[in-house]
Amino acid sequence: QQQQQQQLQQQQLQPQHVGVGATNGVLENGKDAPLSYLQLHTTLIRDQIGQGLGFSIAGGKGSPPFKDGCDGIFISRITEGGLAHRDGKIMVGDRVMAINGNDMTNACHDAAVQCLTEPQRFVRLVLQREYRGPLEAPLSPRSPAVLNSLSPSGYLANRPANFNRSIGDMISEQAQTNLQQAPTAAPLLAQQQQQQQ
């Protein structure tokens, strides 16, 4: 009887598979799991203006679609060792939703290329990743937490530490630098005091 109780306890500790789980996007009953979407925000930082970003795009209005039935712009290739590869958040197949705050959901391919090749050091991307199944989304190794909107505060969340300095901070720093570089007043005061005596 004690042995039966131990077996029952072990069975309760083992995971139970019910017909709602998904493996590789297919439910146990053989049907496809529902599509889900994950929105990702990342900022690529060029070492110098004009440097490539390390990925290619495909699709967009007026261009051959990357994905059947969709005019969206997608990441079609990631260059090994490039900025996008080193960033680690972008994956082939991610849909480009916004570039530096410019909505790309209905954009033509050329408009996206223009945004990506502008002479800017910081390139902020909002991407949408599609996956099947009710379980957790497949994340790239360094994906940020799920963010739900195209708001600037979302994609600026991944900016470099010194990117969010207020103008007041910069003025204070400049004033401090100016004070440190200015000649001190002590020799001038001593000179004035000697003249008065």
Automatic annotation (TrEMBL):
GO terms for cellular component: adherens junction; basolateral plasma membrane; postsynaptic density; postsynaptic membrane. InterPro entries: PDZ, PDZ_sf, Synaptic_Scaffolding_LAP-MAGUK. Pfam families: PDZ. Residues 41-131 form the PDZ domain. GO terms for biological process: cell-cell adhesion; establishment or maintenance of epithelial cell apical/basal polarity; neurotransmitter receptor transport postsynaptic membrane to endosome; neurotransmitter receptor transport, endosome to postsynaptic membrane; receptor clustering. One of its GO terms (molecular function) is protein kinase binding. This is Protein lap4. It comes from Zeugodacus cucurbitae.
